[in-house]
Amino acid sequence: MTGMSVIHSIRCMRKEGASVAAIARELGISEPTARKYLREVDLSDRPPVRRERPSKIDRWVPLIEGWLAEDRRTWSKQRHTATRIHRRLVDECGADVSLSTVTRKVRELKREFGLERQRGFLDLSWHPGEAQADFGQSDVYWKGVRRRMHYFVLSFPHSNTAVACLTPGENAECTCQALKDLFTRLGGVPTRIVFDNAAGVGRRRRSGEVRYTEVFRRFRAHYGFDSSLCNPHAGHEKGNVEAKVGAIRRSLFVPVPSAWSFEGFNAALFDKCMGLAEKPHYRKDGRE
Question: InterPro entries annotated for this entry (predicted)?
Fold first, then answer.
């Protein structure tokens, strides 16, 4: 490599009128080398070229793109989140890739697919033993046929835990059967449950008057818990369960699941809900 002192001499000798041949003889270099540095305009060091290393996520991009392409034909509430994609990559493919890496890539791909949207959250505080209840909807391949079905969610805001079960509808009978099944699996009964005003167990009128169905009144008396109904159009009064309805749909109903019986599906669904509760609580030390 030609040093800067030699290059400096080449240029100085040329300014004094020396020929290229004379410069080469004097400095002991070849004529092409002399010409090269005489033509050079910028003598500053070239910055090193950074070679981009392949990311661990690259090999999984086609698969992720396939899932997002399917999401375009799926109900907007039942599409993949970055967390769900990461879980599927790890569980189904054995991928060794971090959640943060998947999140960045999914955000980028969702922009391209036009699937990105803004989300908001409401933080509430509740006492131990109190629960909130609501229904959600999700597509399910019921006995091989894709149908929009209902699922009941019972959440415990204090621990941020929720359990769910698939139901044939949202009336009082379905609510009571879902509660009965969940009480049995949980091994206990909440002290108080707050229901949505449209949950099928009763109605709170704008005047404040509450009317429960006879079926629910008998059920509540048998199990001995207190209950209350939200005001009409007041979803913020049960913000935890509303968030859980969406979280369970995104985590446990994506991709669209298959079900052949309520009993078999709900047994597996309960176990999966309890599995979600094993993750660290977002505020407390320890599990949810």
Answer: Homeodomain-like_sf, HTH_IS21_transposase_type, Integrase_cat-core, RNaseH-like_sf, RNaseH_sf
